[in-house]
């Protein structure tokens, strides 16, 4: 097996993470082998002479990169790489210590300790720095010097990197036994109980046939991977596309999906912060999987137009079966479609990632735009998409499993836009907003909470400090606008202890950070302060308050209940207008 690693017959699929075992684990692994204890099964995938994924050699066998492997290692990378580096190549192992500091180490067996009790085997495996010396006293004192064969033999420390080189083992044995007659018996014990165990060690292997589907490979890998980091579809497709020989032959290089995605995501997030914060990571916000799903929805929709029996879908198996030629053809259209989605969200005053109700809902929207193109800008289609979007948000339709809804939304929205006036998308039909839901909308965890916040800005809310005009998309960022409590928390605690509805979206409204600094005490008091700060007459400032669908008289009277129920009714009307449908009102007796 180690020979196969060195020759390139056995390699890794490119989606495998890097080798990362530390010095202690390597020593424990070697001890296990010398004891002939079971090491566990490794799993490989036969290639059939092809490259189902872009291969790469195990760490230390880089000279065999040009070889097309017969087997790809799915499980066992850490164990086999550690053994290959420690036992099979003539250079120190590059590893780390328990604090993750980089090290270079040679591995030895202390012969005298090794032939003793098996319980001491871990202590018999010794690692030394690249110069083959162990030092102490701040490196001033040499505790163990193994920098030559003579010094190795004198110390009785056998170098494990020569264990499979018969000539080197013989030469080392000759010098060792000639040093002392007692070493003959010691060597015999060592050869029988240690070297023989290493050289004849058996590792069971499961081989998956070359016909195994990519979906099955992904599933198997996730189940056997003990590192705790699941493999995602993007990583698997990256390796698949990189292994596409036709593309490489035609272009002189392999396809780099991560580079393509990085360029797309940077362009989107730079123009539209709602898609994520690049300073966090390339996967923050809109993810590579979201993009792949949108591409796959377009691809399967096109196939269905050619063959009606084909299903529109974007499940994992569909993504894994997305041909590179189709991705290359469709991806630019989908990237442009997401640009359109970013602009659409800006028109709905959803400009920051934290304010986005559902990231998932952007996937079918981008797919529809990619399919319809500029037809989405026709007034009727624009109104349809806007209504569909708000029904999805306020009806909280994208909170659970979404793949089946993706499919229905894409097919139904495209069909309606194509002229089927009788078809109303399921998301619009099924969406409902109960008035009592307002009481429980208290945090950003809810899409409807974020949706109502955006609708308040969209319908023309004016900030209570920067009152020169309605809030704009730019002002949301410039003035750090966020939801602020109208009746302050401290006032409610003093005057209405136990009133839980104070944290509802009904008692919150979009205001700048500067305006929030003045929201102290009773509303009647802080409104006078804000009016003075903006240089506005009280009756005029009441008009500013009213842009937040609030009755100013309830605030001047410090009447929380009058304010709450009046604003609840107004917010329900705001929701109804956005969804294009009526909903269930609150019972008047609940007041």
In short:
Helix content is 50%, strand content 10%.
Summing up helix and strand content along with how strands pair, one would put the structural category as: alpha+beta
As residue ranges, the low-confidence spans are: none
Largest sheet: 5 strands, mixed
**Could you give the count of β-strands?**
13
Helix content: 40-55%
- Rounded mean pLDDT is 91
Strand content: 5-15%
Shape: elongated
Strand order of the largest sheet: 3-1-4-2-11
Could you walk me through the main structural features you see in this protein, from its secondary elements to its overall organization?
By secondary structure, the protein is an alpha+beta fold. The protein is built from 28 helices and 13 strands. The strands form four sheets. A five-stranded mixed sheet has the order 3-1-4-2-11. Strands 5, 6, 7 and 10 form a four-stranded antiparallel sheet that branches. Strands 8-9 form a two-stranded antiparallel ribbon. Strand 5 and strand 6 (102-110) form a beta hairpin. Helix 6 crosses helix 7 and helix 15 (324-347) crosses helix 16. The chain starts with a helix and ends in a 12-residue tail after the last helix. The mean pLDDT is 91.
